[in-house]
């Protein structure tokens, strides 16, 4: 895909949604970090249903650590892999208190050292909580990068690096949200809504659905 197309794609995303927001509910960098850890292989809606009551009870590393693994599990048992996530979250809380004074670090290496935090989670926290121009590549963005031709890559890291290299600087801060929302609601895995896609004419996907077919003149 050439630079002119990439620019046009992001200009359209910005025009349609100038200030995109994610769907996870949080009120602090710590709440965001916990929500993102919980969101692995789970929907944002299911996470929000769990974190609403949880954050009313405990929304700091100290308070969550006091709950313990068993106490936390009671709040998040509706979320997939909740036992593993509970162990990681409690361990993360302990590490935040011991090494960072209970504050979420604004540093990739420090974030990725936390239990249950990988590159994607670190990118989300850096982007949303701290305004860093990172692009977290989940399944939606990986699909869009390859399907549209915007950032082809064999794995999430390759797609991320391609996006960081080719996305114009003016759009990097919000690129993550534009792409993930587009993948979640328009460029879905099966039967993408190409007929209502605002970048359909710029997309290089060969299997577009719902495309208008040329009309045939009736014979007299």
What descriptors fit this protein?
2 domains; 10 helices; Endonuclease III, domain 1; disordered C terminus; 220 residues; mainly alpha; elongated; Endonuclease Iii, domain 2; 56% helix
Description:
The chain folds into 2 domains: 3-20 and 135-196, Helix-hairpin-Helix base-excision DNA repair enzymes (C-terminal) (Endonuclease Iii, domain 2), CATH 1.10.1670.10; 29-128, Endonuclease III, domain 1. It is 56% helix and 0% strand. α8 (139-148) crosses α9 (156-166). By secondary structure, it is mainly alpha-helical.
- Number of helices, where a helix is a run of at least 4 consecutive DSSP H or I residues: 10
**How large is the share of residues in beta strands?**
under 5%
Residue windows where pLDDT falls under 50 for at least 5 positions: 211-220
**Biggest β-sheet, characterized?**
none
Annotated CATH architecture of the largest domain: Orthogonal Bundle
Class by SSE composition: mainly alpha
Integer tally of domains:
2
Overall, the morphology is elongated
CATH superfamily grouping of the largest domain: Hypothetical protein, domain 2
Measured distance between first and last alpha carbons: 44 Å
Q: What is the helix content?
A: 55-70%
Rounded to the nearest angstrom, the radius of gyration is 20 Å
Order of helix and strand elements from N to C terminus: HHHHHHHHHH
